[in-house]
Prior knowledge:
Elements: H1 7-19, E1 21-24, E2 28-32, E3 44-47, H2 56-67, E4 73-78, H3 87-91, E5 95-96, E6 99-104, E7 118-121, H4 125-143, H5 151-165, E8 169-176, E9 179-188, E10 194-202, H6 211-227, E11 231-237, H7 244-251, E12 254-265
Amino acid sequence: MNAPDDLSYRTDFIFHHHNGEVEEHADYWVVRTPDNPTFWFGNFILFKRAPKSTDLKPWLEIHREAFGDTLNHHIFGWDESREGAISAFLADGFKTSHGISLVMNEYPMAVSINPAVTVRPILTDEDWEAVLLEQGLVDRIDFNYPEDNGVFRRNQMMAYRKLIENGRGHWWGAFLNEGLVGDMGLFFDEQNEVGRFQNVSTHPAHRRELICTTLLDHIVRHAFEEIRAKQLVICTGAEDDNAAIPTYQNFGFQFAAPNFAVKRIGS
Length: 267
């Protein structure tokens, strides 16, 4: 199977191949995550080129053939570093969901961390429940995700735990006074050469306390010194007000490439 050229979508396939299904066609890939149907970018179509002005109807038909009426969303991404002609999609109720990839190929210069924070892998059921509560809070406050009683995040965390059991990475937590104040995952390809971060988050009550930087410092050191990774990848939204971008860049991550998609939530 061919892999996408785009770094974000290519490293997404680390997860899709383990926890979902990827079906390649001549002009696109169908990505399915049957165990988590409300996972937007786990159930979508990735086209091999940017959209043209006449693509709305045929792309919707491809989506219908692939998923029928089983999803609560339509997501179209494309493996080309340009926005393409999306005006017809926007007129039909889609919104842009563009992002960027940032990379690191070696441990950066020393950075300031919070010495009161302890970083360790998430191991116990109690730890995982704390992660789910923190991730759900961030989802509601930062991203205005709809309330689903934690179904989406719980299904996603179950998939990550399977990856951990298969030796593909870890989920890490930052603890302050024994309480979880931040967490993130880092998982690797089959060769342990490329690592991809997942769901980097800090508890809203502990922002501006170097929680994220302290987590990154510990995990990046582990990746380069213990795993012997060659490249680490973080993907995040391309919005101008995304505060995560300067945090990653200040740590030493470098801009790699943009990625493009449109989404419509609701049937």
